[in-house]
Amino acid sequence: MVKKHKKLQKEKEMDMSQVLPEECLAHIISFTSPRDACRSALVSRNFQSAADSDAVWKGFLPSDHVEIISSSPASSSSQLTALSKKELYFHLCNSPILFNNGIMVRMILLYLCYRTGVGIMCGSG
Q1: In Å, what is the CA distance from 99 to each residue of 43, 74, 105, 115?
Q2: What is the residue range of 39's domain?
Q3: Is residue 103 classed as helix, strand or coil in its secondary structure?
Q4: Is-contact 13 39, C-beta < 8 A?
Q5: Where are the alpha helices (DSSP H) in 1-125?
Q6: Across all residues in the chain, what is the average pLDDT?
Q7: What are the pLDDT digits (tens) for 26-76?
């Protein structure tokens, strides 16, 4: 019984989600894909919190996503700014925003979503 307790204690000490702060986990996850970020959220509560953070999902959005949102119709622009970065990512994967002579952000992100299988893994919203 003591041996089993020590083994569990050692496993807990080696659990990265318990050792590293959430910001470090988020930084590491940000180097993965959206699909992998969704998968890592299943590991533990700490990983879920890190994987769902804006710090991770900001990197998966176009670098000019703020400009893109501000160029969308005023009614949708205010709704979009209230979303988390993860929610915004999936919203843009599923709903088009027209900008610069009608080019759709949706087309860009849809390609990324389905190329990596994120639409299947994380759902659509």
Answers
A1: 38, 13, 8, 23
A2: 2-122
A3: strand
A4: no
A5: 2-14, 16-19, 22-29, 34-40, 45-51, 54-57, 65-70, 74-81, 85-94, 105-116, 118-122
A6: 76
A7: 999 999 999 999 999 999 999 999 999 999 999 988 887 887 777 776 556
Which tokens in the block code for residue 21?
Answer: 């702060």
- Counted residue by residue, the chain has a size of 125
Amino acid at 100: N
Instruction: Please count the structural domains in the chain.
Output: 1
Q: Token pair of 115, please?
A: 């190329």
Helix (H, G, I), strand (E, B) or coil at 53: coil
Q: pTM, whole model, 2 decimals?
A: 0.68
- Look up residue 32 and give its DSSP letter: S
| Predicted confidence (pLDDT) per residue in 101-123, tens digit | 555 655 566 556 655 555 544 54
